[in-house]
Amino acid sequence: MALRDTKGRPLVAVTGMGVVTSLGQGKDDTWAALTAGKSGIHRIERFPTDGLRTTIAGTVDHVDVEPFCAPVLSERLAMLAAEEAVGQSGLTPGDFPGALFIAVPPVEMEWPQRKALAEASGQEGDVTYKDLLKAAASGAFKPWHDLFIFGTVADRVADRFGTRGSPISLSTACSSGATAIQLGVEAIRRGETDAALCIGTDGSVNPESLIRFSLLSALSTQNENPEGASKPFSKNRDGFVMGEGGAALVLENAEAARARGATILGYVLGCGERGDSFHRTRSSPDGAPGIAALRQALADAGVQPDDIDYINAHGTSTPENDKMEAMSCTAVFGERMASLPISSNKSMIGHTLTAAGAVEAVMSLLTISTGRIPPTINYQVPDPAIPLDVVPNVARDAKVSYVLSNSFGFGGQNTCLVFGAEPKGA
User: Fold this and answer.
1) Inside any domain, residue 1
2) Per the residue annotation, which of 69, 198, 271, 314 is the catalytic one?
3) Where are its TM segments located (predicted)?
4) Catalytic residue among 174, 198, 271, 416
5) In the annotation, is 62 catalytic?
6) Global pTM?
7) pLDDT tens-digit profile of 337-383?
8) Does the annotation mark 42 as catalytic?
9) What digits encode the pLDDT tens for the residues 213-224?
10) 2 within a domain of the structure (yes/no)
């Protein structure tokens, strides 16, 4: 098999994968639960939810960190996923021969730390902004300052795995995990590196996040049945459910991977990305940017729409996003969308936000390797306006050679990836 694509670029192979979700730690546990149609969404027990409109999430409760906050949990999830991925690749942890691209959630000081800072200001009664600045400037809170810097997670992961060059941190909303993979692919294609460690991680289920998404009317409020709340493409969907997780892929120049005798798990064949400046949270009504991202990913991969065997949907379970994704896919795949399998992992693990594109990339590759398509659970009330084959409720066995994975984020971030067992024409 040629080790370059039809455009003369190096083929990008996947040699290692790792994942942590609310369904379990590691590929085996997560995949077994996902294909069994199990849900990892449950009532939140991490903090009081009195007064909150949404009291459910797909939190990763089997991972403990101290202090408990989004940056520390996100770092731990990234470490666990990367340890599994690098271990599978056969590359040396601590001396990784390539670059790090990591998607992390936006970070800011959380309420418990703000409260402690206010108390430390030493003022009686109301605490002013000037009091907070004085407390922060004292130097006693430098560890907090370091903790809540955006690039800290990347620096620590880079130190742990010995990646080369400056680590790249990014946050492109819900497409972040896919964007991290895209950056790794592009770096290998340009010849800047022979390997890339690409990670998406998010441990940011906290009261602030729930309140902010609730103010946007983005979250499901069907708290009485947590496992049934996320219902992508169903008529009675009412919003997404927050989730947590981390996933990592080891990407390599296929020629270099073959030379060292690595096992190739699949290929990242194409990437498509388009911005949508229509609205802070809504997509352009004509779907043009999403459609363009889909078409660019297929063209970049050198495949035709008829070559795709399965679509791993963004599938958030929000009324508008599901409708827009269906419209965009129909514009590209035409009448075939009525029978082309498209399912949403988010029905079981919730929306893992900045980790989602990476988590779903791992699931896409496992779909190819196992020949099993995970279902969209909770599909009891079909939406007649979205006539899709969503692989309802039960996993399906099928030969899958090419998968399209969609990631569409707030702020107009649209990223699509094409994965394959082999490059087209091999």
Assistant:
1) no
2) 314
3) none
4) 174
5) no
6) 0.93
7) 999 999 999 999 999 999 999 999 999 999 999 999 999 999 999 99
8) no
9) 998 889 999 999
10) no
